[in-house]
Amino acid sequence: MTSDATGAGCSYFGVRIPRHVQRDMADLAARGYTGVLHTFSENDLAYYRDTMAEIVAVSHAEGLSVQASPWGLGRTFGGEAESRWVAFHPEECQVLDDGRRVAAACLNSGAYRDFCRQWADWVLECGVDSVFWDEPAWVVPGHVGVDDAARWTCRCDSCADRFGRPVPADLTAEVKRFREESVVDFLREIVAHVAARGGANTVCLLPALEGTQGLADWDNVATLPGVATLATDPYWKHWEEAAAPFVRRFARLLRETADRHDVGAQLWVPSFGLDRGDIPDLEAAVAAAREEGIDDLWTWGYEGCRHMTHLATPDSALVWEAVSSALTGCGVPV
Ligand SMILES: [Zn+2]
Fold first, then answer.
1. 3, 71, 74, 150: which could join 105 in a potential S-S bond, CB 3.0 to 4.6 Å?
2. Interval between CA 210 and ligand 1 midpoint (Å)
3. In the chain, where are the structural domains located?
4. Ligand 1 being an ion, which residues bring their Cβ within 5 A of it?
5. Which among 153, 142, 145, 179 has a CA at the least distance from the CA of 99?
6. How far apart are the CA of 94 and the centre of ligand 1, in A?
7. From the first residue on, what is the mean pLDDT of each consecutive set of 10 residues in the chain (334 residues)?
8. Which of 280, 273, 281, 277 is nearest to 304 (CA)?
9. CATH level 3 topology of 7-81+113-140+184-328
């Protein structure tokens, strides 16, 4: 696998009528994009199995490479999609430090790992070029209705089995290490599964080295057998950071880590949730990533996500033109 991929990509979601998708894929290609990420949610798995293969095919026909993300799968990855797996398997869900069970699958659940393998088999059958494991992490309490950011998971029976005894209710150094090792072990299994079937893996890590969702040591992921590309998504507004320094910091960490392990390096910038006043930050972020040697740049998502209430702003159209210009260097198609 190359460590010097160049290109510009964009995520795409919310449309399941292939002829409409085809038109948008042609638009992406005309704008100079070379790749697209399609979201493959649990809803898609249940109801759009073959449709998603058609969507991959129309994307390839426009010359785009295709990544697949496990959108909201089990609530253990990024994405604005709900999980029905957790509704069907409450006993496999994460348990908070205070003993409450929440609606997110446990990364140490064997049944959930099996489900992730089934999901991966499906996206590979759909013909995608890479599986994009997006923001694998223990659940964010606020995402499952727990209004207390200090709570953390997981103290379930599957975790106790792997820990060797019940997981303590205190976030000790040993527990912190166990939580991080569990994320890495989960990734090891699913990445190997994809690689064994001839698929490529990208793992996209949150831009955090600490806290209850961060991973302190990215080497542990980059070195996993079957990882082709390491990615990160330093969305500065979400993390309440200054754009260029934050992106530069994580671009540099990404570049250095990827180089150490001879894997590709891919960085994502946001085009959702931005208004016209954010465009200079967006341009500075792209420039900082390039200066740090990252040439495989993607954005979330198509048209600045103006079709999704939760992510749109009144300036989404302007932001989309700006990010497309910054990523592809192409002007607006006629
Ligand atoms: Zn657990």
1. 74
2. 20
3. 7-81+113-140+184-328
4. 106, 108, 154, 156, 158-159
5. 153
6. 5
7. 70 98 98 98 98 98 98 96 96 97 98 98 98 97 92 98 97 96 98 98 97 94 98 97 98 98 98 98 98 98 97 97 94 54
8. 273
9. TIM Barrel (3.20.20)
